[in-house]
Amino acid sequence: EMNFLAWVKGFKIQEIPIVFTDRTVGESKMNRGIVIEAIWMVPKLLIRKIFKIY
Questions:
Q1: What's the CA gap between 46 and 15, in Å, rounded?
Q2: What is the per-residue pLDDT across 4-54, written as a single tens digit (0 to 9) for each?
Q3: Burial class (CB in 10 A: 0-12, 13-18, 19+), 45
Q4: At 25, phi and psi to the nearest 5?
Q5: What is the DSSP track for 1-51?
Q6: Stated pTM of the model
Q7: In whole angstroms, how far apart are CA 30 and each of 12, 34, 39, 48?
Q8: Where in the chain are the domains?
């Protein structure tokens, strides 16, 4: 969402790659709520762009 707002304001966006290592102990903190939020973010940002809601 922050990248989207920066892009809308005309800032240049650059990706910097990072490397994740797999967990050796413990469990993922990913849950259903996080997945739903991530899936909903794309249409949400599109709607905000269409109606110019920044």
A1: 21
A2: 889 889 999 999 999 988 888 888 888 999 999 999 999 998 998 899 887
A3: middle
A4: -140, 145
A5: -HHHHHHHTT-------------SSS-----HHHHHHHHHHHHHHHHHHHT
A6: 0.53
A7: 30, 6, 13, 26
A8: 1-10+29-54
Q: How far apart are CA 35 and CA 15, in angstroms?
A: 22
Output the six-digit token pair for 28. 């993922």
What span, in angstroms and rounded, lies between the C-alpha atoms of 49 and 31? 28
One-letter identity of residue 50? I
CA–CA dist 53, 2 (Å, integer): 14
9 contact partners, CB below 8 Å, separation of at least 6: 54
